[in-house]
Amino acid sequence: MPDANRLSELNAALDDFLHTRELEEGRELPPEAPTLEDRRAALDDKYWAAVRQVVSAVAENAADGPLPLEDTERALLDFGVFPHPALEDIRSRLDTGSKVDGVLLMHESLNAVVDDVLRRDAIAEYRADYDALAHDIALWPNTHLAHIRYRDDKVRELLGESPRCSHVLKLLADVDEKLEQYKRLETRDATGRMSNDDQKSWATIRHYVESRLKEANSILTPPVTENDSKRNEAAAAAFASIESVQASVAHLIELHEKQRGLEQQILEQQSAARRVTSAELVKMLNRELSSVAGLLRLAARYARVTECAVPINEAVDYIDADRAAEAMQRMLRFDPKLIDNPMAARFGPPELLLAPGVGDGVFDASRNRWVVPQRCFSSTAESLAQAAILYRLEVDANQMKKALLSSYRESIPANRDVRANLKLRSSLIRDYINWITLETYGEEVLPRDTRNWFERHIAPSKTEPWQPPEYRGMNAYQLKAELKELNELSESAENEYRAGVVEWRLAGGDPQVYLERAVPRLTRALELNGEHHAATYSIGILYMQLGDFQRAITAFRRFTELVPCSWWSRKAIELCAQCR
Questions:
Q1: Within 160-228, where are the H helices?
Q2: Lowest mean per-residue pLDDT among 75-89, 187-201, 358-372
Q3: ∠78-331-543 over CA atoms, to 5°?
Q4: DSSP state, 24?
């Protein structure tokens, strides 16, 4: 915990805030007294001062692992709560104990900074590569022995059991003994790294190996006058097997070179990590805290509220990891290309940091993450939608030459006269939030031209089966691996639906494959669960593409019964009309 003085100041600031709020509610606050906003700002300042003191104190013991935080310290960092009667009930709402991949809390973000400063991630990656190489090197003797045995079999197949065969095998065995040394010196000679002693050894070993290979090749080469195709093929196979043995040794040398390179990189990273002082680590952690505090102020400004990390707001929506992940998954269903862009391909999809604060989500371009306050006056979906559209605009500005914003201006008649990009950005942010939070639930709040633009540029295709967001970036190899995993799982409606979507993706537009492989999996999903929304809509799409319009209409009608109020149900009604 913070030291006694810091904790006392923090409690006093909270008491002052609560007292001022009582006076203000009773209209008894003297005109010259600090206002509620003044008290809120003072409480926020005391909170961040206490957090910095805690982080600075524990940073000295983070050399060999994560920050050693006690439960009370973690509660302060992650949720803005500390020992005070007014915060006990609120902590139970925030600290649910849920852990979701891709959703971070404040202490995890700080641990990521520690890992980055101390090069732990880089060292772990190099060690993983090193271990993989060590595994390959351990397997090499058996693989190489298989190459040698195959070569010897091909020589016997060509020459038969004869003195010539025994002589060739003896020559090749002599070469095998010196082949690794020969290949190492050959590599040094090619790269200009050969010493004087190596030059002498190279001349001797090269003559030894090449003379024996030349003699063996002369025996294995069929006479020019001989036109026996089978013998020629056997000779070609024997020569290829000899080359494969040499290639195997060359591969071993290449593996050793890579291994030495990785050893050097690991040592360099470890040396750099040892040079990091406690003061430098504390500086980087404080920089992260300042960055998050600044982003939370921006998040509060977007929501037109005063920022305060301590959870003292009334009538707010609390966001935990489960709710954030659920809202993000739903948003990806209605904006499937959100993380399909050059920035995501280079840096990966953004992580989501749930930070102690109030307001709507923002995007942190410096760390490629969404920063979402744990309290909002709107809803979880709206807060995350705000962060998502800011991410889209960042990608659009830096990677796409503002193609999205230009299209939003030129494709919608009402926007063509808007010259100010800031005003246009604000309009797009507002419309995107309405799209995610209202339109996707079936409420028609956007003008028709704006709705049509979102359906062209943001929404998923209404004429394709529903796809889980993670499937959209998969290639054929990954889809086949996913299908194999699904087939090994226990049968369920969800697994059968996913298998049907994968079969549809792998079909490549072939209607016969749809009929034979995708439709049966979706049919089975509906047999297991007749109310599976995704399978119902998806099988309607496939029936429509196969020309079985009556079954398609039946599926779409069933979908509108299951999901009466949704953007998808409106699309199902439109497709029913097309089927007629």
A1: 163-191, 196-220
A2: 187-201
A3: 150
A4: H
What distance in Å separates the CA atoms of residue 394 and residue 343, rounded to the nearest whole number? Answer: 9
Residues 6+ apart with CB under 8 A from 300: 306, 307, 357, 358, 359, 373
Q: What span, in angstroms and rounded, lies between the C-alpha atoms of 483 and 472?
A: 14
The residues facing 371 across adjacent strands are 353, 362
Q: Hunting for tokens 């509610």 — which residue is that?
A: 25
Q: Output 278-287 pairs: Cβ under 8 A, ≥24 positions apart.
A: 278/59, 278/60, 280/117, 281/59, 281/62, 281/114, 281/117, 281/118, 282/55, 282/56, 282/59, 284/113, 284/116, 284/117, 285/55, 285/56, 285/59, 285/110, 285/113, 285/114, 286/52, 286/55, 286/56
Q: What is the pLDDT of residues 412-458, one digit of tens each?
A: 999 999 889 899 999 999 999 999 999 999 999 999 999 999 999 99
Q: Among 287, 291, 307, 288, which Cα is nearest to 299's?
A: 307
This prediction's pTM? 0.83
Q: What is the DSSP string of 217-264?
A: HHHHSPPTT---HHHHHHHHHHHHHHHHHHHHHHHHHHHHHHHHHHHH
Closest residue by Cα to residue 344 from 398, 421, 411? 398
Which residues, other chains included, contact 353 with Cβ-Cβ below 8 Å and sequence gap of 6+? 104, 105, 106, 109, 292, 364, 369, 370, 371, 372
SS3 364: strand
280 vs 253: CA distance, rounded Å: 41
All residues at 6 or more sequence positions from 124 whose CB lies less than 8 Å from its CB, including other chains: none
Give the model confidence (pLDDT) of 513-570 as tens digits.
999 999 999 999 999 999 999 999 999 999 999 999 999 999 999 999 999 999 999 9
At 375 the three-state DSSP class reads strand
Would you say the C-alpha torsion 332, 334, 336, 338 has a positive or negative sign? negative
Tokens of 533: 């929304």
Residues 6+ apart with CB under 8 A from 133: 255, 258, 259, 262
Q: Which residues contact 402 (CB under 8 A, 6 or more apart)?
A: 396
CA-based nearest residue to 52, from 115, 16, 6? 6
**Paired residues of 376 in beta bridges:** 317
Averaged pLDDT score across all residues of the chain: 90
Assign 466 to helix, strand or coil: coil
**Mean pLDDT of all residues in 277-286:** 92
* Whether 534 contacts 559, CB under 8 Å: no
Rg (CA), the chain: 34
Q: What angle do CA 116, 117, 119 make, to 5 degrees?
A: 60
Instruction: Delineate the domains of the chain, giving CATH numbers in brackets.
Output: 122-272 (no CATH), 333-457 (no CATH), 469-579 (1.25.40.10)
